[in-house]
Amino acid sequence: MEKLDGKSLDITQENIKKLKQLFPEVVTEGKIDFDKLKLILGEEIETAKEKYEFTWHGKAQALKLAQTPSTGTLRPDKASSKNWDTTKNLYIEGDNLEVLKLLQKSYFGKVKMIYIDPPYNTGNDFVYKDDFRDSIKNYKEVTEQVTKSNTESNGRYHTDWLNMMYPRLKLARNLLAENGAIFVSIDENEFANLKSLLNEVFGEDNFLTALSIKQRHEDRILKGDKDFHEVVEYCLIYRKSSSYKQFKKKKDNSSIEEYVYSITELEPPAEVIEMGNKKVEVFTPAQYRLEKLPASKKNLKRISIRGSLKEGNSSGRFYMKYLDGIPDHYGWLYKVPDMGNDRYPYRYFMRPLSEKITNGVYFQGVPLDKADFIEVPYANFIDMVDTFNNVGYEGDVPFRNGKKPIKFLQHLFTLAGLENDKNGIVLDFFSGSASTAHALMDFNLKDNGRRKFIMVQLPELTDEKSEAYKAGYKNICEIGKERIRRAGDKIVEETGKTDLDIGFKVFKLDSSNVKTWDPETANLEQDLFELQDNIKFDRTQEDLLYEILLKIGIPLTIPIEEVKVNEKTIYNVGFGSVLLCLENEIDLDLVYKIIELKPEDFDSKVIFKETGFLNDSVKTNAIQTLKKNGITDVRSV
Q: Is the pLDDT of residue 531 over 50?
């Protein structure tokens, strides 16, 4: 019976595996031969002593922090949850660095969209100080005291912020699907550093845009001592890879209201000339009549040839090559055969009416393949002043620290392509008052979507003088959970719909359910579950169950059925994909029940507690009995 690997995902080893797939000859016994790798890459190696590099004090340590496996786990909290048995949503309380590590195996490459609104580092924001040596102990100490802000007088003002953000973004990237994207809100204080950081983590080629959001009126002065009045914030958007599809805005194209022109030829053309192998008929202003009529599919649309249109289509290019700059022929009409895709076998071009007008025009009919909608790019600027002014009223909870409006977040959902993905996962690991969760539930309401959220928030203590504290919320997580509860109830109350997922499972970061192990000691590769009787006395079977699911890479919201046999519990996970029994004094009756639960159409993984069998004889017989019945993947913890 194989011991279960108790470590969270080792990022360094995963990267070595990927490198080995590309260049198998450079990896020997798990080590990289960098000299050989340089030979293979050849001219692509950067050898110059002076080169562009974005760096800061502590960067190497921050990277090491991201690569160090977590020593913690996530413990279920059913009492704080809503609709535990049916919901697919998650609310996780804890340091987001450790939580991101713990989610690596179960959610690697599964998240469609990440949105975060991290501390802006304005001098009043809390910037979490990570501890490489014992992150879980450090987390518990920090959350038991009022957090301190990262003031500008601190000599490591920008450095501390970068050291906090870097490992979290590295880990977050792993969770994104190949067609996913990350959206990061920021103001001008750390805009430059954040963009450089995201360029490094996601790659410059994956930068999509810096969205500018107007969030307050120009005349609303907050502080008069500033050089400029800040009315705009930003949202940097990066894709995971080229698999991401750039989603565009659908614009109504069904209208014919612009098709109002009619051209009547009053006389034969003044001349016929050849232009680009086409016999072009030329009319003077006296030889044709241009009329403006009520809109009709029989009429023409007038299009000015300017800007990108000069080279953007065949008509623009034809005009610029043959007609632009012809002297004197003001208002002359040129009838060019075999152009365009409309009901007419020709296209009319007209020179400017006077020397004061620089742009010519052409007239086209209604396209034969005219679609009711066309796709146009979204602008990288949005005016959300009114929305931000009313954000304080959203959610029915007191939270004055940078709430983001539902309308704004739903605009980001659209940019991320969630309108076309009704089952996508949205992650927010600086979730604050849980605006993202609220916005996503409301977004699902519009199309009966089953999109899921994962909210992660450090349980920062609220200030005793704050409105939130006086209302009974001792930390930010209590605010976020209550907002989700109220928002869900309000949706049901107002719509009457009962088939929407308005619940969430709460998990809390804690030390492992097994006795402490040290990731820096020589026995780092020793399995977390190697010692016998190593389960902590104050932990439940469910605590251990969910730690195991994280370690073997199974989502925390997977369906779990509890099957009772002689007052002992078998956990049937994912309709038989994993069968666990974490009881003591396991006998063969339990083993036979496990065999009954195994599906016929796929293999099951079976997990026992190492010391849980009645005796060694039962343990041996159990393993052999399982193998005879087609269950070969048997593990112990």
A: no
> Averaged over 80-105, what is the pLDDT?
97
Q: In the beta sheet, which residues pair with residue 586? A: 613
Portion of the chain with pLDDT greater than 70, in percent: 86
Q: Are residues 359 and 477 in the same domain?
A: no
Same domain assignment for residues 313 and 401: no
Q: Say whether 26 sits in a helix, a strand or coil.
A: helix
Q: What is the pTM of this model?
A: 0.79
State the Cα–Cα distance between residues 627 and 637, nearest whole angstrom: 19
How many percent of the chain have pLDDT more than 90? 64
Q: Is residue 622 part of a domain?
A: yes
What Rg value do the Cα atoms of the chain yield, rounded?
32
Range of the domain at 438: 52-249+379-508
Pick from 576, 518, 512: nearest CA to 544: 512
Q: CA 562 → CA 138, 315, 460, 546, distances in Å?
A: 35, 70, 35, 14
Asked if residue 338 lies in contact with residue 286, where contact means CB atoms within 8 angstroms, the answer is no
Q: Which of 524, 508, 512, 401 is nearest to 455 (CA)?
A: 508
Closest among 170, 72, 14 to 547, alpha carbons compared: 72
- pLDDT tens across 349-389, in order? 999 999 888 899 999 999 888 776 778 889 999 999 988 88
What DSSP string describes 548-576? Answer: HHHHHT--TTS-EEEEEETTEEEEEETTT
Residue tagged 């609709």 (tokens): 83
Answer yes or no: do 499 and 620 share one domain. no
